[in-house]
Every structure is written in structure tokens, then in C-alpha cells.
Amino acid sequence: MGLFNLSPDIPWLSLIWLSMVVPAVIIALIPAKQQEAMRWVGASFSLISLILSLLVFLAYDPVQAGFQFVERLDWMPQLGISYLLGVDGISLPMLVLNGVVIFTGALMSWNIERRTKEYWVLLLLLTTGVYGVFVALDLFLFFVFYELAVLPMYLLIGIWGSTRKEYGAMKLTLFLMAGSALVIIAMLALYFGSGLRTFDMLVLAEHVTLAGHLQRIFFPMLFIGFAILAGMFPFHTWSPTGHVAAPTAVSMLHAGVLMKLGAYGCLRAAMWLMPTGAEAWLPFFAVLTLLNVLYGATIAMVQRDAKYIIGYSSVSHMGLVMMALAAGTQIALTGAVLQMFAHGIMTALFFAVVGRMVYERTHTRQLPELGGLLKVMPFAAWMFILGGLSSMGMPGLAGFWAEFTIFIGVWEKYPLIAILAAISIPITGAYILRAVWAVFDGEVKNPEFHRLPKLTWQEYSGAIILAVILVAVGIYPAILTEVIDTGVRPVVTQLTGVVVAER
């Protein structure tokens, strides 16, 4: 049983994504000069969406498991398209993650003064798409929400970004559009090849009527199409560039949530709906993810820009997620979803500190130009250190349990890959400690740093929320893992059934 019951007559999942559409409409109608009102509307509804997500999470019954809070409405029955929503142990942590990141990101957006109306509308529409992806069970609806989440990024980076923002926005868009093209092809293969003429993922997963040889052809298209957004090697190069160019809140959403959409799509769509193709291709992708992990960590080690360090660190950590997906075991998939959550919170905290607290005050992210900020902004320093410890996999923080679970799960399937991937652990520790030393340790290098503006209540509040979650999940990971375990089990059953059938 969940902690309490929610009325089945209320469309809770629709309310979650609509809680982002409503403020977008309200802000669009507010006069342009009333910027403070726009901020309060955006932040207030972001908090409402977080509360709704937490209510659904706490009301979910892990004993019953499966998809709950299901909403179904025929949309285009002639084409087999329906408005079908539901949540399980995989999507629930992602809903909460998105709620936390958009609320804290809204707090970090309080300083946006240029074209404030357009910024908030695009930010909220992006979040609408993310929520929609995590609750959609119709593949066509899934793709519609997916595109809604991706497209606003171009404008958010191109208009409000920095550091080669036009280049970063265009590169991101081209890569993700190429991925979307692959996803569409694979979707149509499932639609026509299965003979079911439906986009209902529950039906497609139950029957899996797409022939094995067709799965082997179209699985890599669907997997890679989503994996591009997850930053999988060698399709990762858009990611650090996009992180650096994006404004703070968008960086938080970009690394904290959007990259998880890619991994979620790989798990929910590709692996669940094409298990035969997964069994054939996942060993190959496991090798690519090893390059992700080691390459990302190594390149992060030599960066001089603090945002680039976080960007390449995200490539490495998302590589661990994709590696766990490639392993496909119960423990590995549980670790993958837990890592998506832990990395999302950790990276949001990183970008809040580096992008909002440090860069927007010092106007530099170059490590040689910083130094001694522990004496000027000790709160920011300790928040960065906490995020760094989680990134390093320090026991007692969320990152430890995520990585530990992943390595156990990957060892079950690919022990050599697990051993080689472990090389990234000391490298991660090295670049995190290097960043802490360069930015916060020692004497204040620039006398102007003594006159930096004080942190705002929004910055304190957002960072504290993220930090508390890292510690809470680190102390009691079962609050997530017990739910996640029920969600990944059907995917493992699909993959295991393929292996047994082939034997």
C-alpha cells in the first residue's frame, strides 16, 4: 500500500504537466514590465508541480506494482493513437527529479531581466514536455512530449546563453533532431511491423510481435536516437558545449533532467519494446559506454573552465547509466535509474553554484582566475564540495549508492568492463579536488572578489533543497530503490525471456 490514497476520479498525471502549461499562459498574459509577478507565478507553479509529483510518488503502491494512476482517452483511434498516461517505479523518481530541478531552477532564474516573459514561457514549456515524457504510455504521445522538451532549448540557449551560445544551440539542435529522425523511423517500424497498428506501449510490450530480424535492424535506431540525448559516445560532443552555453537554470535542467530523457527513452521504449534487438546489440553498446565513462572523466581532468568540467563529468556519469542499461540485469537497471536521479540532483547543485553563485558575480569560470572564494562565499564552497563528494561516490551521499549498485550489476554481466570503468573513480576524485582547490582554496586572488554581492534567499533555498536530497537518499536509498526495483523488473523479464527462448 502507498502511504495514502489519492482519489481515482482526479487525473493526477494530467494535472502535473498542466501545472506547467497554466503558468506559461498566465505569464504570456502578464504585462512585460511586471517581471516580479512572472517570477512568482513561475516559481509558485513549479512548487505545485513538485508537490503533485511527491503526492503521486507517496501514494504509489509498490506491492501492487505495475502502472498506476492510468489515464486513457482515445485521441486518434483510426491510427491507434491514444492519450495514455501511467507511472511505475521507473517514471516516479524521474517525476520527482523534474519537480525538484524545475523548482530550484526557477529560484535560480530570479535574476533574468532580459525578455523575461519569453524566458519563463519557454522554460515552463520545456518542463511540460519533460513531465509528459515520464508519464506517457502511448509511443506517439511520448514522442510529442519528447519534442516539446527538446525544441525550446535552442531559443533558451541562443538568446539567454553565453560562451558561443549560437554555436552551442545549433549544435545541440542538429544532434537532437538527427536522433529524433531515428526515433520516428523505429516508431513506424513498431507500428507497421508488429501488425498491431497501435502506438500503445502496453500492448506492444505485451505481445512483442515485431519479428526478431526486424528488431535487430531497428533497435539500434531507437536506442541511438534516444542515446544521443543521453550523451552516449561518440554522439556526446553537443553536451558539454550546450552545458557551457546555457543559462544557469537551463544548464540545471539540461544536465539534471533532459539527458535523463534520453536514457529513459532507451529503457522505456527501446529495451522494453524490442528485447530481441536489445539482446543482440547491448554488448556492443556496453563497449561504447565504457569509452563514455573513461573519456568524459579524462577530458574533465584537463579543463580550465569550471562549467566544462561539470559538462564532461556529466558525460562520464551518464556513461555509467548507459553502461548499466547495456548490462540489463535487475541490479544494473535499478542502479541506472538511481544514478539518473542522483546525478540529476548533484549536477543541478553544481550548476547552481558555478553558474549562478560564482560566474554571475565574478564574471569568470576560468580556474586560474578564481581562488579563495571559500573566504568570500563559504556557503557556495560547501555546496560545491557536497556535490563533489557525491560525484566521487562518497558513502553517505546519493552518488555512492547509485555507482555502487551499477558496478555490482555490470560485474554480473561484463566483469571486465566493470573493472575498466572503475578507473574513472580516482580520475573523478582528482578533477573534483582540483576544481575545489582552484576555485575555493587559498587566498583571494582578485581584490574585487571581496566586494561581491551577497547570496540571495533564492540561492540559499534552492541549494539547500538539492543538498538535503543528496544526503537523504545517501542515508536511506531504499526510499527510491524499493520503488525502482518494481519498475525495472518487467524490462528484465522481457530480456530474460528472450534469452530463454533463444536457448
TrEMBL record:
Keyword Cytoplasm assigned to the entry: answer is: no
Q: Which residues cross the membrane?
A: 12-30, 37-60, 80-107, 119-137, 143-160, 172-192, 217-238, 250-274, 280-302, 309-328, 340-359, 379-402, 414-440, 460-479
Domain of life, per UniProt, equals: Bacteria
A single GO CC term, please? Answer: membrane
Indicate yes or no for the key word Cytoplasm: no
Annotated membrane topology is:
Multi-pass membrane protein
Tell me which Pfam families the record gives: Proton_antipo_M
Compartments, record wording: Endomembrane system; Membrane
Where is this protein primarily located?
membrane
Q: Which residues form the NADH:quinone oxidoreductase/Mrp antiporter transmembrane domain?
A: 136-424
Instruction: From the UniProt record, give one GO term of the biological process aspect.
Output: ATP synthesis coupled electron transport
For molecular function, the Gene Ontology terms on record are: NADH dehydrogenase (ubiquinone) activity; NADH dehydrogenase activity; ubiquinone binding
Record's keyword terms, sorted: Membrane, Transmembrane, Transmembrane helix
Family of the protein in this entry: Belongs to the complex I subunit 4 family.
Q: What PANTHER family does the record point to? A: NADH-UBIQUINONE OXIDOREDUCTASE CHAIN 4, PROTON-TRANSLOCATING NADH-QUINONE OXIDOREDUCTASE, CHAIN M
Protein name per its UniProtKB record: NADH-quinone oxidoreductase subunit M
